[in-house]
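Sample intake sheet
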Amino acid sequence: MKNFDDFLNEILTEDDELRIEMDILELKYMLMEEVVQYRKENGMSQTEFAELIGVKQQMISRFEKGNVDPRLSFVSKLLVGMNKSIKIEDKSYFRTDNIIKFKKKDIKVISENVKLNNSPKLLNCI
């Protein structure tokens, strides 16, 4: 028996149009969540945020409910108001959340005067 995720993945691999629509909706909902989270973290009402970005409160409400398909100019105002930007990345590349940690090594520099071609030079060794 298939679970819902398996069923959905199967449908999305078979239907390119549906997969594209799902990707678009995912981006829209990500932005909606960012706006709500930003307002809550900053203790702002829809009205206060709307005034900040120069739109009517109703537009913020409709956007947060998913009742409007925003224009690029509106999305730009949202991003500027939240002091955020969009990162465009190629989805065909493998993404990872693994973090490589590097340890800082102590480096000792030993200096001594040596003569090369009859002129004194400073020699650094690690």
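Comment: Residues 1-85 form a domain with the 434 Repressor (Amino-terminal Domain) fold (CATH 1.10.260.40). Residues 119-126 have pLDDT under 50 and may be disordered.
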